[in-house]
Design a protein that fits this description.
By secondary structure, the protein is an alpha+beta fold. It has 4 helices and 10 strands, in the order αβββββββαβββαα. The strands form 3 sheets. It has a 4-stranded mixed sheet with strand order 7-4-9-8, with helices on both faces. α3 (about 155-165) crosses α4.
Length: about 190
């Protein structure tokens, strides 16, 4: 985006009030001045950020996690992900989450992208990674997470994205970006 567009469209915060502080999110309401001089309110969910990885085994399988998502009201199939701890580096978070969620360490973690989850009302940025050279690792999962692992050829997971079976945004974006990266590297994952 050009600097000119940023200046033309910028909203300026004139007042901010935090109305909720939680374990994972905070909520604030900002009074903003619009570029045309008008005013409005913006409800903002503050989140410290998260990470997610597409873990690919040496056999070309992706390891997904199946879990209940209360906000969605259903079970979802996703790439492993987790929230950053205060001050924690994204790669450090990713290494921790891979052990906690899928019981593997990654010898190689490559950044794919950093994306805003819902920039209309949230500060959350999620780092997407490709995790390869996986080795089993002992780790404790979080007590409040009940997870089932699902292994599938990457080609199947991509088909599930196309068919709408996978509809978690970070999972769809991560799988598509991982497939593009592997193709760039001349490494297409086998069909399994």
């Amino acid at each position: 985006m050009t600097e000119d567009a940023s200046n033309r469209l910028r909203e300026v915060t004139v007042n901010s009030e935090r109305v909720y502080e939680g374990k994972i999110i905070n909520l604030r309401v900002d009074d903003v001045e619009l570029p045309d001089g008008g005013s409005s309110k913006r409800e903002i969910v503050e989140h410290r950020g998260a990470v997610a990885a597409v873990p690919i085994t040496k056999d070309g399988e992706v390891i997904l996690v199946r879990q209940w998502r209360h906000a969605a009201g259903r079970v979802m199939l996703e790439i492993p992900a987790g929230t950053r701890e205060q001050g924690e580096d994204m790669i450090e978070t990713m290494r921790r989450e891979l052990v906690e969620e899928i019981g593997h360490r990654a010898g190689q973690i490559e950044p794919l992208a950093e994306v805003f989850v819902t920039p209309g009302y949230s500060t959350e940025v999620i780092g997407l990674y490709l995790a390869t050279e996986l080795e089993p690792a002992e780790g404790a999962s979080e007590a409040d997470e009940k997870i089932e692992l699902v292994r599938a050829p990457l080609s199947d997971a991509l088909e599930w994205c196309r068919d709408g079976e996978l509809n978690d945004a970070k999972t769809v974006a991560g799988l598509l970006l991982a497939a593009m990266r592997l193709e760039q590297q001349g490494l297409s994952a086998p069909d399994g």
